[in-house]
Amino acid sequence: MTKEIRTVCYDAELNVEAYRFEGIMQKFPHHFHDYYVFGIIEKGQRYLECNQREYIIHPGDMIMFNPKDVHTCMQVDGDVLDYRCINIKVDRMRELSLDISGREETPVFAGPVLRGTELAPLLKELHQLISEGETDFIKEELFFVLMGQIVQEYSEVRAEPARSGRTAEFRRVCEYMESHYPEKITLDKLCGLAGLSKYHFIRSFTRDQGISPYNYLETIRIGAAKKLLEQGIAPSLAALKTGFSDQSHLTHFFKRYIGLTPGQYMKIFREEAASVPLKRKDNV
């Protein structure tokens, strides 16, 4: 059996995360991130659904996810997945947009799949430089060259990605979960906000948002837990502060959605606080 290797680095100079997954069989359920993801497939075909559209992605393809893009993926050819990506927070993307275009905007990227693009080798090279702890400015130069091309060629400027027709109907529900995620949230409460029966609420919310109400809530909680872990908050306490029943509950969902355990994720930021050189790694 192929050994799974999961590597994550944080580059303090670029202010980005770099993930690499090798030998992965895991299916990732419907979820979203509160940051941008730019990745390349190196091995294995995968079925991808993003914003309720379906794709088959192949080695050499590049993917781009906007914040709140609901997506899921799974293997289709029996082969393992080798994949690498960089993650960029919204504030950092706004800084890049200002630097590149002279306008501090929040871009939305078309896609999510780019086939045969010349950007894929650039992304792979940048990822390697980050992973190897490159300190020369070649890394920063490549980063701005790559992001400049992506922003100029593939971005639009909108407040958020377009959603299907009934989003406004569930806005109160989403805002409630985003504000009250540390608390116990009941289906009765969410149905009351939407004015629907439980059956019709679950069906309508999932059809509209592309994700079930419970998965939406857990995704919000995972995003909040990541921020606490980055600050050095222990996984057990982060779990309690974000609505999970205990650390085991947090670990289950964290690995399911992120592909890492909370402890592995926290480790790179603990090392950063201890002033370890730029290369931050954790291999599983």
Describe the structure.
- The protein has a 6-stranded antiparallel beta sheet. A 4-stranded antiparallel beta sheet has the order 3-8-5-6. Strands 10-12 form a two-stranded antiparallel sheet.
- The protein starts with a strand and ends in an 11-residue tail after the last helix.
- 43% of the residues lie in helices and 23% in strands.
- The protein has 2 domains: 5-157, Jelly Rolls (Sandwich), CATH 2.60.120; 167-270, Arc Repressor Mutant, subunit A.
- It has helices spanning 90-101, 119-131, 138-154, 171-180, 187-194, 198-209, 213-230, 235-241, 247-258, 262-273, and strands spanning 5-11, 16-24, 28-31, 35-43, 46-50, 53-57, 62-65, 71-75, 81-89, 107-109, 113-114, 155-157.
- It has 284 residues and is an alpha+beta fold.
- The radius of gyration is 19 Å and the shape is globular.
- The model is unreliable at 159-165 and 275-284 (pLDDT under 50).
- Residues 171-268 form the HTH araC/xylS-type domain.
- It comes from Paenibacillus faecis.
- One of its GO terms (molecular function) is sequence-specific DNA binding.
- This is AraC family transcriptional regulator.
- Keywords: DNA-binding, Transcription, Transcription regulation.
